[in-house]
Amino acid sequence: MPHIVMTQPQPHMALLKLQGAGRYNLMSYAMLHELWAAANAVQGDRDIRVVVVAGGDSDFSAGMNLKQPEVRDYEGLSTEDRLAIHAIGARACATWENLDAVTVCAIEGYCLGGGLAFSLACDFRLASSASTFGAPELLNGMNMSWQSLPRLVTLIGPARTRKLVMLADNIDAATAEQWGLIDLVTDPGSALDEAQRLAERLLAVSPAPLRMTKQAINVAANALNHAVSYMDLEQYVTCQSTDAHKQALDAFFHRS
User: Is 142 inside a domain boundary?
Assistant: First the structure.
């Protein structure tokens, strides 16, 4: 069963939906590999100029599924295996961020952890007023990886990034819009419709100037992103070796 579904409702627009696990639409490493492959397919299709990205009907994604073997059985994996497995998160996000096509993310419900990290790689984020945003990684004894921290700092600044990540405080859609994390708050259940309307506006813009403007903005905003975050994969693998991480996962599995 695929973990994403990508359709092309019109010649120049693609629609990608995440099909994760359970009621919270949890992500997996298989999904990340499919997201990476989908981004490469979009980049290879010159007709696609805008991509709308959506999660589940009730939740965009509450993050990575901690019960998948790559997370649950981490103690049996070598350091090299862990580095190879976890590298796909940053690779998938970077590929989506670097698309020539403009990306519009439609968010309903929970957008947490890996779900938030992936949404940061998109150009626009629209969210239902019932949405919740958060980064619970530190509560589980791990760092926020996938090279997400500089993207957050660019969008909301260092002080608010500290609140969101270091204190692991969830925020609502109104706060997310005020902070600059999202671009528009919609009525519950209408994020996808609004995202598609924004996509139509983008398709009405001349393609070459739109593409060049996206690239110029990304270069200006992200010039040092890789330099300050390229080691967060190694930091994540280091965090897996701490007592805090083991205790957090043990507590999670005991609750569930």
Answer: yes
Query: pTM, whole model, 2 decimals?
Result: 0.96
In a domain, 198, yes or no: no
Q: What is the pLDDT of residues 197-218, one digit of tens each?
A: 999 999 999 999 999 999 999 9
Residue 54 lies in a domain: yes
Single-letter amino acid code for the residue at 120: L
Domain of 235, in residue numbers: 4-192+204-255
**Three-state helix/strand/coil letters over the chain:** CCCEEEEEEECCEEEEEECCECCCCEECHHHHHHHHHHHHHHHCCCCCCEEEEECCCCCCECCECCCCHHHHCHHHCCHHHHHHHHHHHHHHHHHHHCCCCEEEEEECCEEECHHHHHHHCCCEEEEECCCEEECCHHHHCCCCCCCCHHHHHHHHHHHHHHHHHHCCCCEEHHHHHHHCCCCEEECCCCHHHHHHHHHHHHHCCCHHHHHHHHHHHHHHHHCCHHHHHCCHHHHHHHHCCCHHHHHHHHHHHHHC
Give pLDDT tens digits for 126-137: 999 999 999 999
- What does the block give as tokens for 120? 């940061």
Q: How many domains does the chain have?
A: 1
Q: Report whether 55 contacts 61 (CB < 8 A).
A: yes
Domain harbouring 160, CATH code: 3.90.226.10
